[in-house]
């Protein structure tokens, strides 16, 4: 049986230290569950921090890179998938994640949340206030808001316990 | 010199009659200016209605389809670009448009607006209230809100008059 | 009814003058038939020459570019489709063409021929010797070899006359 | 330091038993070296057989799938990357592999070899006769032919020993 792939989305260059700290902690917790961490793979912001956390706890990290080579990949990414597709790779991030946790970010993150929801993925917003946006998905039980990384993990476990078919 | 390519985004199957009427009118006006209309190419909602409007006024219509064949293309699309990339084609819509007009839509439309803004395109929201989302782009003069198709055309002309380099 | 889209593939920077002359002539003939010319869109080699020929005869030219902007587009391309997908766009070239004419080229051209044949497109090799490669498609009547642009046009007309469904 | 990613390309549904046996053996050897095996991810032909071999030896297997879900993924794939891009994903296979081993296949395999060579990857043909095709790459020391899986492994080790920069 395959391991669960948890997509971690969020800001790149513009991510604050607080957001990166959350991402780092989330990465640790994902690895401790034995899950695979997937993100956009670059060596900045939420991507770098979450991969670092996961790696330090022995987790496997997969990065879906926009580039044609690994020059900008985070050193904490084990498997850099080189798409050469620029932001077009956001669609792959959404499809490949079994479940998505989104931290504060901007356009790229919002496009990933939108594409994830559109393709039937559950999205957990971690300390990320999107107002009424996507509220229909919240009502449908496909989008949740949490404040702490531990709560994000708890939400994922709840979904797993409910027997959702991820694979 | 190339013709301006105006991307028209908005709801598919779920678009209301009112929204489709706006899209149809917008398509007509775009064609009357001699501009090329680009959209997601399918034969439903804003895509079908805007292409129909443009075609009836002799305009050229380009559809960036998610599919591998033209079976679901709108009959009003002159040039169906078959990507086979599913929602991944939204990125191509954003890049290929010189300017984007977005009517009410859901996840797909939001992902296109986000990718357009991220890639430096001006986005004109036509009767589409997104609350505070993307407000930083509004402040930067890259996102505008209008109520009528005629106003969207006027905004585009203003940008052209300011000498923006589209090509 | 839509116009036929003829994909013209072949060498880029490395294309010889003779090959470019063939491409230019082919572009002219495609435009004279009222067909749309599609190619990879860059301002070099077979792409530039075929678009120039088509444009000089009043044809419509569509370029599927690997880039995120039109800086490297041929000036003879009317509609630059900006994919940002690098060589990944070769798949779009294959899918979007109703029929493909391939002039001498290298890796990119061969990948396009392979993807076109795999996706059910007829490929006409114009003065391009591929030895036994793809010979099964030749036997199946999906690949033809011609020496002159006029013969390529004649092959396409024959296919149209046989009532092949392109659209 | 990252593990080497070896891309294994070759026939799908049409692959012969002999070819699948070679792929299975190759997968085993790749895993025994501690390398990551990457392929197109589907549960048929060379993809399925090579993943099975690698998995049985404790290797990590990554599949770049054309689909939007994992329904057609080989059960021996640990990490299914869901691109939704159809054959467009062949470009990702080429970019993501540090080195490519190609077994007998048809259009898809040829497109992958072409895209790999075009993007600077070394390609090792395993019992796959392509005649003169790509012979310029053979002369440039970027394409090799071997008869046995063990020889493919030896070629990769030779390249590594020469200090090629893969990462």
For the record, the CATH class of chain A is: Alpha Beta
Uncertain stretches of 5 or more adjacent residues of chain A: none
Strand residues, percent of chain A = 15-25%
Order of helices and strands of chain A: EHEHEEHEHEHEH
Structural class call of chain A reads alpha/beta
Overall mean pLDDT of chain A stands at 95
**CATH architecture descriptor of chain A:** 3-Layer(aba) Sandwich
Tell me the Rg of chain A in angstroms. Answer: 14 Å
Side-by-side strand order of the widest sheet of chain A? 4-3-2-1-5-6-7
Shape of chain A: globular
Proportion in helices of chain A: 25-40%
What is the domain total for the residues of chain A? 1
Task: Give the count of helical stretches of chain A.
Answer: 6
Largest interface: A-D, 25 and 25 residues
Count of distinct strands of chain A: 7
Oligomer: homotetramer
Strand count, sense and barrel status of the largest sheet of chain A are:
7 strands, parallel
Question: What does this protein look like?
Answer:
Four copies of one chain form a homotetramer. By secondary structure, the first copy, chain A, is of the alpha/beta class. Chain A has a single domain, classed as 3-Layer(aba) Sandwich (Rossmann fold), CATH 3.40.50.450. Helices cover 39% and strands 18% of the residues of chain A. Chain A has six helices and seven strands; from the N terminus they run E-H-E-H-E-E-H-E-H-E-H-E-H. Chain A has helices at residues 17-32, 45-56, 90-96, 107-118, 135-139, 149-161; strands at residues 5-9, 36-39, 61-65, 79-82, 99-102, 123-126, 143-146. Chain A has a seven-stranded parallel β-sheet, sandwiched between helices. In chain A, strand 1, helix 1 and strand 2 (36-39) form a beta-alpha-beta unit. The longest helix of chain A has 16 residues, at 17-32. The N and C termini of chain A lie close together (9 Å). The model of chain A has no long low-confidence stretch (mean pLDDT 95). Chains in contact: A-B, A-C, A-D, B-C, B-D, C-D. The interface between A and D is medium-sized, with 25 and 25 residues.
């Amino acid at each position: 049986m395959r391991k669960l792939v948890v997509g971690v989305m969020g800001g790149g260059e513009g991510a604050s230290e607080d957001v990166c700290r959350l991402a780092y902690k989330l990465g640790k917790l994902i690895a401790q569950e034995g899950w695979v961490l997937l993100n956009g793979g670059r060596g900045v912001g939420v991507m770098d921090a979450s991969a670092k956390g996961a790696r330090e706890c022995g987790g496997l990290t997969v990065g879906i890179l926009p580039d044609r080579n690994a020059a900008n990949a985070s050193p904490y990414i084990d498997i850099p998938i080189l798409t050469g597709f620029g932001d077009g790779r956001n669609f792959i991030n959404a499809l490949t994640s079994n479940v998505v946790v989104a931290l504060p970010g901007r356009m790229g993150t919002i496009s990933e949340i939108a594409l994830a929801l559109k393709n039937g993925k559950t999205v957990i917003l971690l300390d990320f206030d999107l107002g009424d946006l996507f509220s229909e998905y919240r009502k449908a039980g496909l989008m949740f808001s949490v404040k702490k990384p531990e709560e994000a993990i708890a939400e994922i476990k709840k979904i797993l316990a409910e027997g959702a078919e991820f694979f």
